[in-house]
């Protein structure tokens, strides 16, 4: 299947669900083939977009789905680790991403390049950028650097804000009110009611991961309830 242009792909997400298809290292589902099957399943269920991590996963998923593919690379787990370098951003586009998700903070990056350099490299190759943010300052910085959309992905994980029990609706409302690009809600969206609350708060689209694509965590919620 042919990937859409970045602009067309982003437009198709308005008011819709994006599903994050990622498995953690060491888990049974940590395989590009399995993640590709999961991506097909969520698209069959009605998702208008897929968010996936890792070049091999992106390459496996791209030929199988014709919805918006948001791609990223994770390097480690501290500091800037979401698509941290210009080279990583370029690799995501080459692997088929319509939109590249990357760290949208002003923190120093491993390659010493500014955020704007990664964004420019993605734009040069015809794709768009989603900046994963943890605060309003992050979002404003990212938009100034050229980001096409922003997400609440890092809310509670950068030290700028406390970790909320559910989606950070307060930050979402701030971003919707103060930035001039689409705002995607992501992070701790655990059920359809949370997702609807995000849209009501003004989210352009909603990204859900663990609650749909992480069997171990989903199973644990049932086990914990039964043992309560």
What is the total number of structural domains? 1
Strand order, largest beta sheet? 1-2-3-4-5-6-7-8
Our count of helices gives: 10
Gross CATH architecture? Alpha-Beta Barrel
Percent of residues in helices comes to 25-40%
**Low-pLDDT ranges:** none
Q: Kindly, what is the distance between the CA atoms of the first and last residues, rounded to a whole number of angstroms?
A: 47 Å
Structural class: alpha/beta
**The level-1 CATH class:** Alpha Beta
Range of strand content: 15-25%
pLDDT averaged residue by residue: 96
Highlighted features:
228 residues; alpha/beta; eight-stranded parallel β-barrel; 16% strand; globular
Brief summary of the model shown:
By secondary structure, the chain is an alpha/beta fold. The protein has helices at residues 6-11, 32-44, 55-61, 86-94, 115-124, 136-145, 169-178, 192-200, 210-213, 215-227; strands at residues 17-21, 49-53, 68-72, 99-103, 128-132, 149-151, 183-186, 205-208.
